[in-house]
Amino acid sequence: MLQNYVSEAFLERIPLYLNELEKYKNDYISSTTLANILNLGEVLVRKDLAKISQGGKPKIGYHVMDLMNDIKDYMGYNNKSKAIIVGMGRLGNALYHYSGFNKYNIHILEAFDILDDYKNINEIKDFCSEQDIDVGIITVPKDQAQNVCNLLLSQGIKAIWNFAPIRLNVPEDVIVQNENLADSLSILIKHKNDVVRK
Amino acid sequence: MLQNYVSEAFLERIPLYLNELEKYKNDYISSTTLANILNLGEVLVRKDLAKISQGGKPKIGYHVMDLMNDIKDYMGYNNKSKAIIVGMGRLGNALYHYSGFNKYNIHILEAFDILDDYKNINEIKDFCSEQDIDVGIITVPKDQAQNVCNLLLSQGIKAIWNFAPIRLNVPEDVIVQNENLADSLSILIKHKNDVVRK
DNA sequence: TATATATCGATATAGTTATACCGATATCAA
DNA sequence: TTGATATCGGTATAACTATATCGATATATA
Ligand SMILES: NC(=O)c1ccc[n+]([C@@H]2O[C@H](COP(=O)([O-])OP(=O)(O)OC[C@H]3O[C@@H](n4cnc5c(N)ncnc54)[C@H](O)[C@@H]3O)[C@@H](O)[C@H]2O)c1
Ligand SMILES: NC(=O)c1ccc[n+]([C@@H]2O[C@H](COP(=O)([O-])OP(=O)(O)OC[C@H]3O[C@@H](n4cnc5c(N)ncnc54)[C@H](O)[C@@H]3O)[C@@H](O)[C@H]2O)c1
Questions:
Q1: Is this structure's pTM higher than 0.90?
Q2: Are B145 and B164 found together in one domain?
Q3: Is the Cβ pair A175, B191 closer than 8 Å?
Q4: Contact A27/A64 with Cβ under 8 angstroms?
Q5: Residue A109 in 3-state DSSP?
Q6: Could you point out which of A85, A112, A198, B125 has its C-alpha 20 to 30 Å from the C-alpha of A91?
Q7: CATH no. for residue A100?
Q8: Strands A175-178, A159-162: pairing kind
Q9: Do residues A114 and A121 lie in contact, with contact meaning Cβ atoms separated by under 8 Å?
């Protein structure tokens, strides 16, 4: 196991913390308070924060501004990240025009498609040779996803955010995050049905 | 803890299994094979399948068609689920027109907005009184999300799929699944940066 | 200044999830 | 028909994650 390994659950909590802290700028907050707001255990929150923060003060808690900055440092939000997106259909368009990524200093620099309205996919090579791209976002139909993935990998991209409902084949050193919305919705419905049946 | 409690991780694996099995219809498959394809432990797969299937045969494995049907029964894919969506901006449009939910027998019956192009949000009450809706999908701006959520709850909806980057306040018996895409992307980038730095 | 208290952070414990192991069994090959 | 073997499914173990406990400490209050 890697030295500074942390669990996925932990990483998913960090943006939640950051989001809440936003409301308490210019103040202090205790792990107890934060835990109660987010419906988490107080010790869990304290342990999480211990991993990334300079520490809090007994009786008072954590200095919110400092804590937010520690979180941003830890998650890399203080550094700009660059993404490109391939497939400018409905979903690609939504993501490309979404401003919510800026909060994390993530910028979708260019959008590629086979259609004329966008930068042509053939130009991806030129574009990537001039930019160091952190993430490739795949929003093409599933039968095109592996092709597009290969293209992105050939440009040296090491992280893929994949919305096509298919498992991509990639080398060991490439990270793929599948965002399977249909699976996700089906699980929500499963939960709902189980509760009702209970 | 509930009697038939299963972990979230387990539920997330089930659609992956179903997806792979699609390719092996009219055949048998062993837990070992399935595990290797999906990069999972063979025992884990076997334990997962034991929870939902009629069982496999030594030396042979599981009858794929039967297994698929067991999975569909378990997840409720054999029953139709009904959803409505509120907020027909870019993201709402993408989801509304996406055909991939049909695979799980999930149907988005109607789309509401304040804009004239869609069913007006004021008509939601009439609509819901005639239909038993399983899930409400929220794709409105975040400052409208809680309002819309309350409206959905007032119509008796017990499951919310929320894309607005905000935590919704709901009663105990309502299930909210937050789909925070920005958080998700930021975590992918965090992973990528860690690997590079390693 | 002395005392009470909320919180931190460290350690110990519990609970949950994944893996290892092993006997039983159905199939395939000889 | 017989023996070898891959796989199942149950039990035991390990790994990981979350919670409980407790002494130390900084602040607020008397
Ligand atoms: N729309 C959704 O809400 C949704 C939800 C979940 C998953 N998805 C998945 O996301 C992907 C896109 O969905 P969508 O609804 O936006 O589809 P879409 O058909 O609207 O868009 C696909 C786009 O990809 C482009 N394209 C096709 N092949 C290409 C190639 N080789 N290179 C570059 N561009 C190419 C097309 O021109 C089109 O613009 C699909 O895989 C879909 O399964 C979509
Ligand atoms: N676009 C994305 O890729 C993306 C990604 C992540 C999260 N989100 C979130 O999803 C939500 C929608 O994003 P979008 O990009 O589609 O925004 P958008 O502005 O394109 O669409 C919002 C829609 O909601 C409608 N609306 C506003 N108030 C309403 C109300 N009270 N009742 C009914 N309809 C109402 C508007 O008329 C508009 O059509 C936002 O909360 C956003 O933060 C979007």
A1: yes
A2: yes
A3: yes
A4: yes
A5: strand
A6: B125
A7: 3.40.50.720
A8: parallel
A9: yes
